[in-house]
Amino acid sequence: MSDVAAIEQLVSRHETLKKEIAKVIVGQERVIEQILLSIYTGGHSLLIGVPGLAKTLMVNTIAQTLGLDFKRIQFTPDLMPSDILGSEILDQNRDFKFIKGPVFANIVLADEINRTPPKTQAALLEAMQERSVTIAGQRHKLPQPYFVLATQNPIEQEGTYPLPEAQLDRFMFAIKLGYPSVEEEVNIVKSTTSDQSTILSTLFSADALIDIQHLVRRIPVADNVVDYTVRLVNKTRPNTEGASDFVNNYVDWGAGPRASQNLILGAKAHAAIHGKFSPDAEDVKAVADGILRHRILKNYKAEAEGISEEDIIAELV
Predict the structure, then answer these.
(1) Are residues 269 and 295 in the same domain?
(2) Digit-coded pLDDT (tens) for 153-178
(3) Is the residue at 50 inside a domain?
């Protein structure tokens, strides 16, 4: 199949997938699109929102419709790295045997990831970047495709730990979930308080998703789009040549090169699901908020004046 035909097929399958997910998840179209974009590009996503917004249900539903192996890890203050990665035990023959942890799945839901201390959070770093874990000097590869979809309660809530910057940077998207509208909440209440159960169809497979990831990477990008993307990321860095007075006044730390890479990949996938064969600057802008939000560190002046990361991104694009 040619890449043109493959993109046309992806557009159709993506629309069908969205309709299937909508059987369970009411609203949140923008959130679901960003999660799917990260999956089509092989990235990880961080879902930020207060408890009760169906973050866990959303990830579970997406895993079912994609036909992927799914495991959930509930992060708590007493969780240890071995509870995530696995550990070696002595078997009956006095030989060491590695018992795989829940990180060995296609989709790992790291539920309330900021409720556990940084030492345990960091256990996911190698898995997210290298798609492998090292136990007692032995490297174990993770199944492919591999995605970490983490949920996080707002940091102001009691009993939470901030994620290390190195780990935040490994998430392609940081996606904020808001409260549903009144109409959406009425539909949610009706569907969740009845005796009816929804049967979901499996529309993809692991191999099909790997093919899509390769397809996205093959999509050509014009030099001017790459130049625009890199300049956009450079503008987030205070006290550099491309930084504006606005950024210099309100930003402590800007985005690194991984942001530029993710913006291009995200723009490619965004173009593909809309039937375009090459992304333009509008595709970059469409994914900029989710990709840059967690990579811009505001200063105290921005906090005092109520300026959000979204305000800074809107000023840049």
Answers:
(1) yes
(2) 776 666 677 777 777 888 999 998 88
(3) yes
Could you tell me the CATH number of the domain that includes residue 310? 1.10.8.80
Name the strands in the sheet holding 45-48, side by side, starting at the edge strand that comes first in the sequence. Answer: 70-74, 107-111, 147-152, 45-48, 173-176
Please answer whether residues 282 and 263 qualify as being in contact, where contact means their C-beta atoms are separated by less than 8 angstroms: no
| pLDDT (tens digit per residue) in 260-294 | 999 999 999 999 999 999 999 999 999 999 999 98
Are both 75 and 118 inside the same structural domain? yes
Question: Once rounded to an integer, what is the mean pLDDT over residues 211-223?
Answer: 94
Q: Give me the helix-helix angle, 281-292 and 309-316, nearest 10°.
A: 160
What average pLDDT does the chain have?
A: 86
227 backbone dihedrals φ, ψ, rounded to 5° = -60, -45
7-50: per-residue pLDDT in tens? 999 999 999 999 999 888 887 888 899 999 999 999 999 998 87
Could you tell me if 308 and 182 are in contact, meaning their C-beta atoms sit under 8 angstroms apart? no
SS3 284: helix
Do residues 157 and 261 both lie within one domain? no
98: enclosing H helix or E strand: strand 96-100
| Chain centroid, CA 199 distance in Å | 26
| Phi, psi dihedrals of residue 224, rounded to the nearest 5° | -70, -30
Strand-pair partners of 141: 132
Domain membership flag for residue 242: yes
**Pair 41, 122 in one domain:** yes
C-alpha–C-alpha distance, residues 4 and 78, integer Å: 50
Q: Confirm whether 155 is domain-assigned.
A: yes
Of 180, 206, 232, the position where a domain reaches its end is 206
Enclosing domain of residue 276 = 222-316
3-state percent helix, strand, coil for the chain, nearest multiple of 5: 50, 15, 35
